[in-house]
Amino acid sequence: MATARLLSDIEVEKIPAVKAVFDDIRATRKSDFVNNFWRGLANDPVSLRRVWEQLKAVMVPESAIDPLTKEMIYIAVSTANGCSYCVHSHTAAARAKGMTDAQHGELVSIIGLAGQTNHLVTAMQIPLDPQFEVT
Q: pLDDT averaged over consecutive 10-residue blocks of the chain (135 residues)?
């Protein structure tokens, strides 16, 4: 159960600042769908706009990292942070951007391996090799 009320489209229409962000979400994504994350965040219009603008600045423009890889990174970080909602939503986004079952399987294997080795190195408190220092 959500800890924040999820604003309906009728409620959003009555809050110009929220409506403007929702309109931009729809236009940017070329979809009428606005997911529950944004509906919950809409209770705070300032945060809604700030987070949406940050997401747009990182995830939307063409950059050195292609859109599918960005989504796969988001899945990995969301898994590490234990955010089931984000794992699901960004897996759907990655699939929409062409992620195959084979890529997803490999991604999950990498996430699992990284989690395991991260925990082992942390438990053993292994010192960093000087060769890995950024100079």
A: 95 98 98 98 98 98 97 98 97 98 98 97 96 91
Q: What is the pLDDT of residues 29-45, one digit of tens each?
A: 999 999 999 999 999 99
What CATH code is carried by the domain that includes residue 118? 1.20.1290.10
- CA 23 to chain CA mean position, Å: 20
Q: What is the DSSP string of 15-68?
A: -HHHHHHHHHHHHHHTSS---HHHHHHTTSHHHHHHHHHHHHHHHSS--SS-HH
Maximum CA extent, the chain: 59
105 and 121 assigned to the same domain: yes
Q: Which domain holds residue 45?
A: 1-61
Give the pair of three-digit tokens for residue 125.
Answer: 């408190």
